[in-house]
Amino acid sequence: MSKQIVPDQPGVRVGATPKNTTEFTPVKEPDTFWQLLRIGLTNHKASIIDSVQRLIRQPLGSFFTWLVIAVALSLPMGLSLLLDSTDQLDGSWQQAAEISVFMDIKATETQAQELVEQIEKLSAVVEVNLISPQQALQEFQALSGLGNALTELPSNPLPYSLLITPQKIDKEALEDLKQQLATMPYVEIAQLDMQWVERLSAMLRVGKHFIFGLALLLIAALLLVIGNTIRLHIENRRTEIEVIKLVGGTDGYVRRPFLYMGMLYGLGGGLLAWLILSVILSTLNNSVTELAQLYGSDFSLQGVPLIDGISLVFGAMMLGYIGAWLAVSRHLRELAPR
């Protein structure tokens, strides 16, 4: 029996391509903070680019989502800006809230001037106008239509009076100022019509509460819209996500692109809302200015201030982030590989 020959080297098949021997080098784990930071920034950059590309590939759907967000944000923001614009009317309100002070009938002009100087030193007072008995009588004759009858009076029955413009339109502050004026020397009566002030304050409070409630409802609606939109993106990428989780992808890695997508929806909606508000207020301001000029007022609507516009965009991005987080967190458990 012949002895079996064992070759020293493995045989090579005729015509086969020679194999190149390669050495396997294991991937070195990052061991410094800057390496970890660089890797994290790279991952975030890739997620942002991917989210932007997906929005660009669906321009019509993305635009309508931005439009819905913009309309929902524009309504409460616009009402709030209109309410804030009424601050320009403070001068007119202060004049309408003037406190009328009637001095003693026997008070002289010198005493009236002393009282004016004393009142002007009060921090709660903006302006003091002194009305002499002669001026008061002339105004009464012009307004009452009893000019001929008043000329038959033996003497002027009207005293010196003062019209005091307050610094702040507040019910308690006005009442305190009225009481303080009533105790001053030579003052007979201090009068203040508080009814219109109370009505104005009540209307402003109702307006602020209405805007706050409307904002809460629209914020809840926006969260639902953004969450539903992100949910559709999740369903379209279900297989991809399951594969990522199958090879060891973490929940944070899966969640990241959807969070950026939600923020991009908020960013686009916020910028579009800023543009819509600017156009509407600018168009409406022309009519408001013409109406105000007919009443001798320089009132005009304020545009969207830069700080408010930036806050609007930032708030919209936060709403997009929250809506995406809620949507992904809800469906993340269902995306486990089977």
Description:
The protein contains 11 helices and 4 strands, in the order αααβαβααβαβαααα. A 4-stranded antiparallel sheet has the order 2-3-1-4. The model has no long low-confidence stretch (mean pLDDT 79). The chain has 2 domains: 185 residues, no CATH class; 94 residues, Alpha-Beta Plaits, CATH 3.30.70.3040. By secondary structure, it is an alpha+beta fold.
In short:
This protein is α+β, with helices and mostly antiparallel strands.
- The H/E string reads HHHEHEHHEHEHHHH
Structural class of the secondary structure composition? alpha+beta
* Major sheet size, sense and barrel closure: 4 strands, antiparallel
Rg computed from alpha carbons, rounded to a whole number of angstroms: 38 Å
Strand order of the largest sheet: 2-3-1-4
Continuous helix count = 11
Query: How large is the share of residues in beta strands?
Result: 5-15%
Whole-number tally of structural domains: 2
Average of per-residue pLDDT values = 79
Roughly how much helix do the residues carry, as a percent range?
55-70%
Termini separation (Å)?
Answer: 59 Å
pLDDT < 50 runs, ≥5 residues: none
Give the overall form.
Answer: elongated
Number of strands: 4
From the structure above, extract its key features.
alpha+beta, 11 helices, 7% strand, 338 residues
Question: What topology emerges from the helices and strands here?
Answer:
Blueprint: H1 33-57, H2 59-85, H3 90-96, E1 99-103, H4 109-120, E2 125-131, H5 133-144, H6 147-150, E3 161-166, H7 171-182, E4 187-191, H8 195-236, H9 238-246, H10 251-294, H11 306-332
Antiparallel strand pairs: 1-3, 1-4, 2-3
